[in-house]
Amino acid sequence: MNDPGAIALSAVLGVPVAAAAVLALPLGYRLGARLNTLAALLTFLAAVALIGARPAPGPYLQVDDFSLYLVVLTTFVGFTTAVFSASYIDHELDVGNLTPVYVRFYHAMYQVLIFAMALALTANNIGLMWVAIEVATLTTVLMVGIYRTHEAIEAAWKYFILGSVGIALALFGTILVYFAAQPTVGEGTDAMAWTTLVARAGDFDPAVLNLAFVFLLLGYGTKVGLAPLHAWLPDAHAEGPTPISAVLSGLLLNVALYAVLRFKMLLAANGEAFAPGPLMVTMGLSSLLFAAFMLYRRRDIKRFFAYSSIEHMGIIAFAFGMGGPLANFAGLLHMTMHSLTKSAIFFAVGHIAQVKGTQKIADIGGLTASHPLLGWGLVLGVVAIAGMPPLGIFMSEFLVVSSTFAREPLLALPLVAGLLVGVGALVLRVQALAFGAPRGGMAPTRASYAPLFAHLGLVAVAGLYLPAPLVAWFRHVAGLLG
Amino acid sequence: MHGLLFDLAHLLAGMMLVISFMLLYQRAMFGVLNTFALHAMVLAAAVACQALLQDAPHLYITAGIAFAFKGLFIPLALHRIVQRLEIHRSVETVIGVGPTMLAGVGLVALAVLVVLPVTARSAPLAAEDLAFALSVILLGLLMMITRRNAVTQVVGFMSLENGLILAAAGVKGMPLVVEISVAFSVLIAFIVFGVFLFRIRERFDTLDVHYLENFRGERR
Predict the structure, then answer these.
(1) Interchain CB distance below 8 Å, A131 and B183
(2) Interface pTM, i.e. ipTM
(3) Residues of A numbered 357-396 whose beta carbons fall under 8 angstroms of chain B's beta carbons: which are they?
(4) How far is A129 from chain B (nearest CA, A)?
């Protein structure tokens, strides 16, 4: 335990657990919100410390370039969302949507969620990773249902049923992977550790691995929100508290995708198993096209951006499905940029829905006139998510499209078509929301702008200039993904 | 190894499959709960049998959890909930019993056809256990689809989960089986008792999920 890396890793996992236990005590709202933010900040700092000093992989935990990049991103967005959540929840208490008991519960659950995501990312054991993703699902189900309205309960129930079926299928896939590994690696935890699995994947029975991957893709793919399995996602985003929508879109979808990609690495290391790329390309494209067209029919602002998340997870799955250093690089970049941008948009949307007292797009208008900072924040976020230059998403989408054109020109056509259809919907809606005569509530707001503009600033900087060490890091991870 | 215990393990896994079919055609609410209790107890016996066969004492804990928690505690608690909420009349199904059973037979055939060729090179008991387990999982999914009622959907999910535990216990020496069964139990306990049934009860005075489906997301 004297190894600084091990200390940092245990801080990343230990701080949220301790914070959850403390936050479950009756502390009063303000102290609770501050502690929540403080704990998220400490977790983020510990994650940053992990970059400098990495622990050696143990039987249950490991940190490599791929997981570390996601841990840092997750804890960062976890921290900024905690800052946003403090002012958001403040308003919900004033209005009476939430009672102090529920806020206590909410803060404790928020920390458990951060812990579960960090554990899923740093787990070296496929069983442990499964348990962590299950815990993350459970906490988000509870938080989606926290408003106890008719709609919130339906959304939470739908999410619970689809999420747990997905989780169950993923467990069957996990068991099959162990079943494939056990004859060569031997019994015990070694046969479930990523480090040994990837090293010895060449000797596994490819037929069992194929079957396992199908279950894993369907199972974790449900949590990613890929097209035929996405039904829970818009409801869960729309009916839960907005900080949870931000964390769901920005982080939990990434964590589920991380699980799929890890297993994809396993198949690639095996060599004889079928290439999972085409499956992921198909699911990614269908998510992209489906969500892009569905965007036009949304009347609810949070639901609208939830569909946009399905669209972007589709693009990311497509990029990783194409594989190769360039497409993988683009996928990694897009994961980061989408996380930052989408959570920023939800920060803005959360405050907007509070000021206007509604989530209906038709009842919101002229934001740039009535609430200039919020309105322009939203416009900037939408411009970024639509993939306009010079922001970060433009760069990653450009890389996806150009690498696809170079290798499979025919696949690039539906990809570009989907992207353009999506951009059309975004432009259409943001015009109605941000410009024209102001509609809806006009009251001034005590919003927290720092997280919103911090995210958008990062996205803008990334679009113009990516630091060389980061590029080298992404290249290395892209190489690992094969 | 190919002794009485080996046959017994097969028999118990097969019994779970038969009970999964029984769950599909139960019409009364209490019938569903009692059949599920039987399902969980047979699972406990099957896991205990695997514990003996593999000489893996930690599996006894999993068997104990299956017996006490899922075989006794959950069914009893659900009995009480059903009685208190007075929803113990018959259970609404989406499709009739005949087509459901036929679909179930088809799913079992599918499971066998998918698993057995793939696992041809592995140890005999493990391969067949996986085929049984996948059949139980698919039948659990079928039950979740064909039932409208929230309680029966939860029972469907729990029978699906029993299939997963059977699979995990059947693969030789799999670590973390105990942890996974605990995680599942927590999931079920949370969902069944902590939140959903009570919240749904508060709002609707019914546990029929059908009433939840009036809202299609775009009206407000």
Answers:
(1) yes
(2) 0.87
(3) 358-360
(4) 11
- The domain of B32 spans 4-91+103-214
Whose structure tokens read 């815990």?
Answer: A135
Which residue, among A142, A157, A203, A359, would best test binding to B if mutated, counting the most B CBs under 10 Å from its CB?
Answer: A157
DSSP label of A251: I
Long-range Cβ contact pairs of B21-24 (< 8 A, separation 24 or more) = B21/B101, B21/B104, B21/B139, B23/B139, B23/B143, B23/B155, B23/B156, B23/B159, B24/B97, B24/B100, B24/B101, B24/B104, B24/B139, B24/B142, B24/B143, B24/B146
Tokens of B182: 């605990």
**Residue B95 corresponds to which tokens in the numbers above?**
């499709």
Confirm whether B168 is domain-assigned: yes
Q: What is the pLDDT of residues A112-169, one digit of tens each?
A: 999 999 999 999 999 999 999 999 998 998 899 888 887 888 888 888 888 888 999 9
Which sign, positive or negative, has the C-alpha torsion A225, A229, A232, A238?
Answer: positive
Q: Are A134 and B183 a contacting pair at CB < 8 A? A: yes
Which pLDDT score is estimated for B205? 45
- Does some domain include residue B220? no
Residue B219 covered by a domain: no
* Tally of CA atoms within 13 A in the half-sphere of A384 that contains its CB: 32
What's the number of domains chain B is made of?
1
Name every residue whose Cβ is closer than 8 Å to that of residue A467 and which is 6 or more positions away in sequence. Answer: none
For B:106-125, CB contacts with A below 8 A are: 114-115, 117-119, 121-122
CB hemisphere CA count around A267 (13 angstroms): 25
pLDDT band with cut points at 50, 70 and 90 for residue B7: confident
How many residues belong to chain A?
482
For A319-345, the DSSP string reads HHHH-HHHHHHHHHHHHHHHHHHHHHH
Bridge partner list, A123: A61
pLDDT category of residue B191 using cuts at 50, 70 and 90: low
The rounded distance, in Å, linking the Cα atoms of B135 and B118 is 15
pLDDT at residue B2 greater than cutoff 70:
no
pTM: 0.91
Position B184 in a domain: yes
pLDDT at A366 over 80: yes
How many A×B Cβ pairs under 8 Å? 135
Q: What is the pLDDT of residue B152?
A: 81
- How far A464 CA sits from the closest chain B CA (Å)? 38
Distance between CA atoms of residues A108 and A348, nearest Å:
24
pLDDT score at B107 = 93
